[in-house]
Amino acid sequence: MTNLIGRRELLASGIGLCASLGAGAALAQSSVTPRREAGTDALGRRVGGGVPGGRPIPKRKAKTTKLFLTPPGWPNAIDIDHDQQRGFWVQEQRHDNKPEAAWLIDWNGKLLRTVTTNSKNTSGMCYGGGYVWSDANRLGAIIRIDPKTWEVDYLIQTTRMPGVAERLHGIAYDNGSIWQVTGHQKEGTTGYEGYTPGLVKYDIKTGTVVELVEFVPGSCDMHDVTIRNGQLYGVDAGEHPGWSIDNPAYQHPGFPPLNSPSGGYVFSIDLI
C-alpha cells in the first residue's frame, strides 16, 4: 500500500472523507484512482447492494452450538491464540469503569490465564495477514493497522445495506476476507425472541460484500466472531442493548444480569 495514514491524521480527516466521498464509497487507500463504470460507486458496486456486475449477493444459513461459559462477566470480544494455539482469548466489557479482563481459555473451556487491561468498553478486533484489524464505528469503516508502526494504512467502508447495517459488531479475518457480526431486530420487538443474528463477509481488496449469513431460530446472540481452521466461533456478552434482564432462565451464578439465553457462552458456528 502507498500513501500511509497515521492514526491522528486518519481521525482528523476520516469524517471529512466519509462526508465528501458519500455513503457508498469504500475509502480504500490507493495511489491510483480506478476508472468507475456508470451507475457504480468507487468499488464497482451498484445501487441495491449487489456484487459488481449486478449479481445478487450469495446468502446462507447458519446454526450455533454452545461450547462453554467464560469466567463471570460480559464477554464481548474473542480471538484465537495465534502465537501458541493454546485456545481462545476472550475480552470482557464492563460498565462500572473498572479494568477489563482478558482471559486465555483453552479449547475446552479451562481458564489458563487472566490479564488485566486498561481497555474500556472493549469490542471486537482481530489479527490476520500480518495486520491488526479493527471496526472503527465513528468512521463507519474497518481499518487495518500495522503492528510494527501502529499506523493505519488501509480501510474499507462497512455496509450500509438495509436490514444488515442496523447492527454491526465484531470482526474476524479469513484468508483475504473479513467476517463481521450483524443482526436484525423484528419491528415491534425488544428482546432475544425478535432478533435474528447474522454475518456479513467482505472482500478485503475491494470492500465488496460477497456473502450474507442469517442464523436459524434459536441460535446464540453474537457479539464477536473468530475463525480457526475454517471453523467459525462466537461469543455472547449477554448485554444486548435495549433487551430486558428480567428473565431468570438467562442468568448464571456469579455473572452480572444477562439478557439472552446464550449470554456468557463461547459457541461454534456452522454454515448450513
Q: Report the total helices.
A: 1
Give the low-pLDDT segments: 1-5, 7-32, 45-49
What percentage of the residues does DSSP assign to strands (E)?
35-45%
Q: Which class do the helix and strand fractions yield? A: mainly beta
Q: What is the mean predicted local confidence, pLDDT?
A: 85
Distance between the termini: 36 Å
How many runs of DSSP E, i.e. beta strands? Answer: 16
Summarize the structure.
The chain is mainly beta and 272 residues long.
Write up what this structure looks like:
With 272 residues, the chain is mainly β. The chain has a domain at 58-131 and 160-271. The protein has one helix spanning 7-21; strands spanning 59-69, 75-80, 87-92, 101-106, 111-116, 125-128, 131-136, 141-146, 151-157, 171-173, 177-185, 195-203, 209-215, 224-228, 231-235, 265-271. The chain has an 8-stranded mixed sheet, with no helix packed on it. Strands 2-3-4-5 form a 4-stranded antiparallel sheet, with no helix packed on it. The radius of gyration is 19 Å and the shape is globular. Mean pLDDT is 85; it is low at 1-5, 7-32 and 45-49.
